[in-house]
Fold these 3 entries.
Entry 1:
Amino acid sequence: MRAEKIYIGKKWYWRLKFDFRCEEKLKIMDLRVLSKIYLDRGRVRIRYAEAALLDGNYPYVVRQSQEAVELLLKAALRYVGIESPKWHDVGPVLKRERDRFPEWFNTAIDELASISRSLRNERELAMYGDEGALIPPEEFYSKLDAEEVLSKTRKVYKLVSKLIAGDYIGVSNIGLL
């Protein structure tokens, strides 16, 4: 396997280049197994977010949705042979590597990157609030905010599960609330 170091924005990441020898095929399979694990972890975060929505814990919905989207998009990257970067918003990597994805997924990449970026910006606020101004996270998010974020997260799940499973498994069929 070969790799090249690529600079995006202010960060470096590794782009793996496979030459498809036998051992390299095994590494691709390992990335695909990891992508399915990440898909499942994202699904679990969505379940937690749905439960938090029912409980009225809107900041937790936002936080769990952000984590779900991050895991799901990293799953998509790994599925196509790209080791995911170690930061929270992988949207720029999705855009840069869009040619590795099927056309139907490629058409959604700009929206997926936008969702990733917007949720990344909410990550700390949803967890800590504004500590400097002594405003808790609960004062920043409403039910409407939580529902909107969860809807976007479900859309990301739908697309990534279709990519990885080859066939979308409906939200009601996978044990989500």
Note: The chain has one domain: 41-173.
Entry 2:
Amino acid sequence: MAAGGTDAISLRAIAREMGMTAGAIYSYYATRDDLITTLIGDLYTELVDAAEVARDALPADDPGGRIVAWAQTVREWALANPEGFRLIYGDPVPGYRPPEDGPAREAEHRACTGLTGLVAAAWPEASSHAGGGDYDWSDFDPGLVGDV
């Protein structure tokens, strides 16, 4: 994938790179879509794990620092893993059909609730600088609000 982008993802090519036969890799992944789904899930989980570690290294009473730590970690991860970042957030994989609930539902949920939690923690301080708007959580899905 690093050399050929998302177009280069194939079970046969991965098997060749791993020194396996194409038939052997099919015992792990029935289809190319299954492999891509697993790859996206693993990469997204790795990214969210790193962001949570960076966030949690700072005290809860420093919401601004925790937001910056999260953002810096995501940026550093994206620069170190450009193909993985594009696979998660960018270029669609030609012909890939993700599962109906998404390829990385748990990691996606952790990323969304993590970011929303950071904003919620920073909001009391930020609202005094926000120009007087009257904002509330009614625009958000109740399930997400309940997790925050």
Note: The chain has one domain: 34-147.
Entry 3:
Amino acid sequence: MKLSTRAIYGLRALIDLGRTCEENEAGLVSLQSIAARQDISVSYLEQLMALLKKDGLVESSRGVQGGYRLSRPAGDISVGDVLRALEGGLEAVKCPGIGQGDTACIKKGEDDGAETAGCHGSSSCTARYVWKRINDSISSAVDSLTLGDLIADSAPADIEAPAPATDSKAGNR
């Protein structure tokens, strides 16, 4: 599975939005400020925020003092929520036989011979269990992380990196 730039930039923007609101106790954050910090174009951010707003993850207000904010606490928004809003589904493999039993296989109509939608071999395909486990693992991973976790783990850019460790052998000479 490969995530698009929409997912990558959208997640970065929401982490920035959540952190900025948290640090500055800001009510609303402008797209221009997020765009400047994250080096993402404002027009692209507008598209991303429209998708996130449609799924109820962000709220907006227009006007001079307008901007965006998370619609609920960052700890209540999973990474899975964000990625699904931006990408649609997160399945690595879209197998019609997963969770469908044998009903997903293509069946020829008795009267007209037309095929119904599905996977021709799903009724006998044991690989579908592999696809299901992969898909379930992805969902579990992204649903177990929240924006709050990512905000807490992310360090602002202006914090200095820790000093490199000293070589213990050099000090013993």
Note: The longest strand covers residues 58-61.
